Every structure is written in C-alpha cells, then in structure tokens.
Amino acid sequence: PHPHPAIRVxxxxxxxxxxxxRRVVHSLGDGAVHVSAAKHDAxxxxxxxxxxxxxxxxxxxxxxxxxxxxxxxxxxxxxxxxFGQTGSGKTYTLxxxxxxxxTQPASPALLGLMQRSxxxxxxxxxxxxxxxxLSASYLEIYNEQVRDLLSPGPPCALPLRWSKTRGFYVENQxxxxxxxxxxxxxxxxxxxxxxxxxxHALNRHSSRSHALLTIHVRSxxxxxxxxxxxxxxxxxxxxxLCFVDLAGSERVKETGSSGELSVEANSINRSLLALGHCxxxxxxxxxxxxxxxxxxxxxxxxxxxxxxxxGVTLMVACISPSSRCLSxxxxxxxxxxxxxxxxxxx
Length: 346
Hints:
- The chain is of the alpha+beta class.
- It has helices at residues 14-19, 56-62, 65-73, 90-95, 113-127, 181-194, 252-255, 260-282, 298-302, 304-308, 326-340; strands at residues 6-9, 25-29, 32-37, 40-45, 48-50, 77-83, 132-142, 145-148, 157-158, 160-163, 167-170, 176-177, 197-200, 203-207, 210-220, 236-245, 311-319.
- The protein has one domain (6-99, 110-199, 207-219, 238-252, 260-340): Kinesin motor domain (Kinesin, 3-Layer(aba) Sandwich).
- Strands 1, 5, 6, 7, 8, 9, 12, 15, 16 and 17 form a 10-stranded mixed sheet that branches.
- The longest helix has 23 residues, at 260-282.
- Residues 2-342 form the Kinesin motor domain.
C-alpha cells in the first residue's frame, strides 16, 4: 500500500487579501488542481486534494494517515512529510496551532496529523493492553547538523552513523517512553520550543530546520507463560511512524535573508535539492535507475529507508493560492508530481 502525495491549499491570508493578491490555484475536484495565471495554465492530478475549506479532520481521514498508523503497529516503517514554501501551512497541517502556553491548549478541531495519529495509536495501545510499547525521539537538522530536541541542555550535534543492519542512524539520541496523550504532547511541545525558528520576509515564525519526530511502536505477539525466560519465545514487531516537518523551500532572495540567515537558507535549500534529486531518480523505472545519492545530505540519509523502498511514505505538499507565490507553488506541484511516480516495496 502506498499513499500518493496529497496536496493541501491553504486559504488566502488577510495580508494577501488586503494587498489584492488573486487566487490562482483552484481544486477541480477528483484530485485535480488547476493553476491559472498570466502565461501559466496547468492542471496537475493527485490522489487527494484538500481545498482551503478542508478541516484538519478531513485531511487526516482523506490522506490515508489512519492506515499509516495501523501499518506502523503492524511493524512497517511509515513516514509522513510536509513539503512546501514557508508560510504554506506545513507545521499547521502536522501540528495545528501548537498551544501558546500550558494554560491555553489549541482547540480540538484544529489539532494536526500528529495529535490525531497519537490518539489513534493510544486507542490501539489501550485495546491491546501491555502488548504495545510506545517511545518517541525528536531530532532537528539545522545547518547540516543533527540535534536532539529532547535531551536536556542546549541542543548539541549528534553523529550520524551507518550500519549494515540498521542503515543510517543517529548515535546517542534520546528515546522517551510514553503511555498517555499528555506525555507525548508535552514532548512535542518541549521539542518544538527548542527548534530553530526565526522571522523573515515570508513568515514571522518560520521553521529554519527540518524536524523529525519518530514514534517507535514495539508490539509483542502474545504473553509468554511466566516460566519462559528466553526473549525468542515471544517474537516482537517493531514499526515506526515518523513525522517530518521540512523547512520552507524558497529562494534566498525571497526571504530577504542575509548573513547567518542566508547560510541557514542555503543549507535548507541544499538538503531539499538533494531530497528532490533522490525523488527524481527514484521516479525512474527500476531498470533505468542509477545509484541513488542518499549520502548527499543528512536529510536524505535519515529518510533513506522511507524513500528507498522499505517503508510506506505519505507526502503532504502544502501550497498557497496567492498569485504572488505562483513560482513556488508551481515548483512544489512539480516536486509532488515526481514523488507520485515513486513506487516502493515495503
């Protein structure tokens, strides 16, 4: 089973409406998106398109996210990643408006794919009793350094290693067990607050790093009798559910960045370019594929399993309908169309 890329079009913002931006993206229903502007008239087809009016719940149910949760419990490596330019709604789609403070939680209707998946996982976990063990790890890739968002103290760079059995993995990353919604949401909040964000021309609170939250799902097949001590008597399945919030994919000149910020923007774009390159090569028919350059960036190394065929991956491409974002919107739609041709054998 392989969910194709889903497209989400956000509403025009107040600023865009005041500025007189036109809506150049229209959903034609049945998975088709039409982009119409001077010199540009293109239609793209996808398996799911969510228009400006689509609720967070509609995106959860219509994107195949619930099936991804069930596959993770069955021992698959599942990944969902949000892609698109800054301000197109990636973080909102994944997390909703993260609570401003402990006392002011977000309204339940606005919760994103992450919290809805946690609810789904915890329901399954409760129905299976102690057969399911859940733990989480949370990393960010900032300026090509992998940093742990859960370990105490200032985030420090962790080495990325490769082994024959595990593929690419991060050494010494912290895994925290959780059994309740409060516990996992507090880990999510704690990690997100430590993530690198900064204001630039496109967004006041822009994510300047790629963040990967991984839920590890270990399920034991059955309760062994008390006298059985060998672990082998009780085979276990290990699945993962990884949420990837990619940093914005836009040209440096549009962010108005300079100095340290332009270094950030360049390393973000380098890693997204590497990701795009891997996706383009994976989209070729199997016989014509050459070597896939996962080693080109930390991001592609960490996503190698999700992209390369041992996992099930859902891509949510977020776009703005504004005439001013036309070139970035077209570039996101082309990127998602290429991803659509990638087939894997999980």
